[in-house]
Amino acid sequence: MVGKINNNISYSKSEIGGKAHNLMILKEKEFDVPDFFVIPHTQIKGNRFEDLSTKIVNSIKDKDRNFILRSSAIGEDSSENSFAGMFESTRVRDNQNIDEELNKVLESENSERVLFYLKSKNIKEKPRLSVIVQDFIDGDVSGVMFTSLIKNGKKGTMINSNFGSSSVVDGSDSDSYFINRENILSKKVINNKPSLTEEQIKSLIKLGNKIEGIFSSPQDIEWTIKGSKIYVIQTRPITSKLTKDLRIWDNSNIAESFSGIVLPLTASYARYAYKETFTDLARRSLVSEKKIREYDDVFENLLGFFYGRFYYNMLNWYKMITLYPGYERNKKNFEDMISAKSRHQFDNDYKENVSTYFKIKYYSTLVIRYPFFDREVQDFIAHVQSYNSDFNKIDLESMSSKELLNLYYESTKQLLKKWSITVENDFLLMTFFGSLRKFCKKNRLKEEDFLSLVSNIKNVVSAEQVDLLKELSDDLKDHKDLYNLSKNKEYSSCLREIHINPQYKNLKLGMSKYLEKYGGRFANELKLESEDLDTNPEFMIKLLVNYSNTDIANDFKVQLRDFNLSIKESIKLNFLTRKIKHYARKREELRLLRAQSFALARKLFISIGNKFMDQDILDNARDIFYLEVGEIIRQIEGSSVTVKLKEVVKLRKRQYLDFKDKEIDDVFFTEGDPYLSLPSKSSENNQMNLKGEGCSPGIIKGKVKILDSFEIPDNEEYDIIVTKHTDPGWTPLFGLCKGLIVEHGGLLSHAAIISRELNLPCVIGIRDATRNLKDGQIVTINGYTGEVKIHE
């Protein structure tokens, strides 16, 4: 066991934080609390990290026992602010990886979700962190208990429980019991056998009443039962719930698809695409039409739009997830998929939205469909490719506005209304990804092992794009006359020579094949207003010139060590890694398909813009991007409330000029009318933190280039690109650098996947990296640990 707390030392709450202080009170009252000791924040601040680790190890009496490292922040677990789930708690086995686990706990005070919580509660200073070192109890049954809450108009105690030591607090589905004066008013059991007996329920209620009496307020208690003993792991006051009018806005990885300011046409088209995709997903998942209609406002408002920028409406996403079984698992998968900076909970009433009958129907359908899912994906890909090919043969300019509108109707039917299969592929990817995470944790594999396992996917369509660009670049370089034209930036002349001169027919053919496959892929490829390679063909020549000066070969190879697993565990590991690579490969292929489909919409709307210009409805064809889809439809169908679309465009152009000067946080919340309660951007944090998340193995030292937006730097030496976010259209740039630092993203973001395929060390999640690093600085990035070191 860990060393018992020294009763001769009296710590105040201001020294050790609310969580530790509450445990001390319970220990003094002789409750069964696992043995623990506390390192106050004053000692943490005054000690080197290595000294803290040594102090913990030296204080452990039984070196073979497992223990928990918990944070205890000043102000945490108070009646006003719970900070529930904000700070890290982590388990240490046999004193292994204690430095890594302690660092997780201490660094959690700088996490995005903590910063958001502070802002939402109007707390000006970050709470100081103490550390609890607590004996780990491998319980038979564990859970949480809310000693007093209202459900369906009745007051009672809510208990959530499951077999094992930590499944409930980890977010797994659980049994739930709502008890009023020892009478069970409602009960949900997820397995055939209930995790709690009636006697255990009575004992827990008795325990809860005692603790509630000590603290004089309703309590949220984490507990575990081992044998006949109930251990109290922690207790905190139950804080007030979110108000009905509260909305949480998080731009997370949507900035990877729609970065910066987005014009009205893209905004309205994307909102419609999200609604159709997730409504179709609900239907494919056998959600009833009645339930889908009830949730229509949720599907309609999955995205928010502020100062021309997209945000996830987080609570609506959570509401949508309640349509499906396994809410906690799906919620975690969703948050991991989008690298959410804000994480919130609904109360238990909202989560219990799925009947037993629907669960049986839902899971039965999944089991039946899964063996044929790859075939479904391939059929979908073939369908979209066939439709896109047929679409590109249509002479859009010869069509009337009404004919173009009918083509739009048909394209949404053929594409958007069937796009939910891509979400299902992402769901499978995240499911296996999460399973591999648990496997690595269970078998004590390091983070660098995990990264190595998910690297080297092979045959990823985006990585193949880089290889093809290099081949075309080498071909261009072999033709000295062409190469000299391009080196002198005479891109138009170079392109014209390629098209008219027969001696360049192989290069012309190669470029045509590239454009056929990757023509829809470019920076900001999902923004309809972006210029593509059709409107800016010279860009490709500039790209090939830059590739001619670059060697994309990387000598670094991911090495997998011997994990010393049993045959059974080795088979499971191989299965999980194969599945992750398969669905990640498909994800990239489907993303390219999405870009190609948006390219069709772009061509279609530009053609309508030309018609509107010819009819004097607009001054310029590209003014179409300042209108919403509905306004265009109503203009053509004759149901518009205004015929002065030129005036609408002028007004919006003035608004968008103002938007450029507006700044807003990546995560914020509003109460009531969102546009009346928009917060201003938080003041900048001057503290430099160059620690993120390693997402692609390798270490590289080189010169930094800061990119606020996509560009191919001219006549400038650089090794490491630093940017806020990337989208798949940035792929060509990956072949021109040796490493990446990206402020936003996750392990399954496009930047992470392609970096691993190209053997580029990559670090994500470094807050304000583009502000704290400067062009020309020499840095070393560690793609394993996420550390970035500046060299003076």
Describe this structure in words.
This protein is of the alpha+beta class and 792 residues long. The chain has 5 domains: 123 residues, 2-Layer Sandwich (Dna Ligase, domain 1); 97 residues, D-amino Acid Aminotransferase, Chain A, domain 1, CATH 3.30.470.20; 258 residues, no CATH class; 88 residues, no CATH class; 99 residues, Phosphohistidine domain (Glucose Oxidase, domain 1, 3-Layer(bba) Sandwich). It has a 7-stranded mixed beta sheet with strand order 15-19-18-17-16-20-21. A 6-stranded antiparallel beta sheet has the order 8-7-6-5-9-10. The protein is globular and about 90 Å long. It starts with 12 loop residues before the first helix and ends with a strand. 40% of the residues are buried.
